[in-house]
Amino acid sequence: MNAFPAGDALVRRDLDLLWHPCTQMYDHRTVPMVPIARGEGAWLIDTSGRRYLDGISSWWTNLFGHANPRLAAALAEQAGTLEHVIFAGFTHEPAVTLAEELVRVTPPGLDRVFYADNGSAAIEVALKMSFHYWLNQGHGEKTRFIALTGSYHGETLGALSVSDVALYRKTYAPLLLTPILAPSADTYEAHPGESASDVAQRRLDELRQLLEEHAHEVCAVIVEPLVQCAGGMRMYHPDYLAGLRRLCDTYNVHFIADEIAVGFGRTGTLFACEQAHVAPDFMCLSKGLTGGFLPLSAVLTTTQVYEAFYAEYSAGKAFLHSHSYTGNPLACRVALETLRIFRDEPVLERNRVLSAHLAKRLAPLRDHPHVADVRQTGMIAAVELVADKTTRTPFPSLERRGLRVYLHGLEHEALLRPLGDIIYFMPPYVVSTDEIDHLVDTAIAGIERAVA
Question: N6-(pyridoxal phosphate)lysine is carried by which residues (predicted)?
């Protein structure tokens, strides 16, 4: 790995002081810390001039390329006008206009917008708001949530409470709420002869049984629509979302859609819920909301939920959750420009061409002896590496085969950060077909190296 600037002064300064997310810092004795100087479209450029094609959109946030001139101009213009103001008792044009646009483009019935700072914060807002709604309605016995097996909704304690990825949850389990887990409709778990729709129906039957038993104590069911991202890019059929909406209505519980990673065109439609023609009671948005420029999240909900809190102060029904940077004008202005790019340009149409090309290039890996599955939903694709294809026996986790693919990618100008031994692709929408070829070619070579 001596091709990397291991002695770079910036790296040395970093390792003397910083503690990075989702990282065992000891790894950086052997795994390079990459010092990035600038971004350009789908590429990142380090301090030595080496380029890396951003195959994961910098943790799924970047939609229209690094240093996008249109978003940068909107940010600069807003910075010269109003950088921030308290959002309790005050308002401003970027927040109001963004809310109007979000209500316009999201599924019908989501008519109220609550801003927060990041995805985990949005989940916290939705969980608290759902519980508090039922409390205000005289149903204080509703204190639990149903989540899917393999789900991931964030790292704050509330968000982690409705997550089911042991790597993140296990250590903090004594501090967390205990969710009721419903089996995921993950198509990877299909029985022989089952279609994706069949799996969805079987899992809906199991969810119905859980609701029969627990609906009286359940505030909401929370799901990542269509793709369970951090849980391994697990994918399922839209029929599950349609059935979930019906069950939530039948059993009088809320439906929370965590579209933080899958929203804004990732799955082929602007929002994943559109593919099932459903509207949730709460929709959580972040990541691509600002095109990858600034932290911002939004929770959209219904007039019915809003009105359960609307009362004289003395009634004690107000939702007092707050963040200092709620409704930040800079972030709202950039988010508004992000939505305008969707309005002005054929983004989704172009994405369909790109996703079809990605599917074509990945198809040969289905026959690889160490690939158990190649799956894709829109601009999200994943390749699952295993020790034995027939039995789907995984490689021992301590062998870190996926890390070998990551390191190979860095050596060959590609950022491919895996989820364990799942190699995934979630590039910015400005990527070209030639750049997709580069990502896939690099991943294939890295896979061969990793399983050798």
Answer: 287
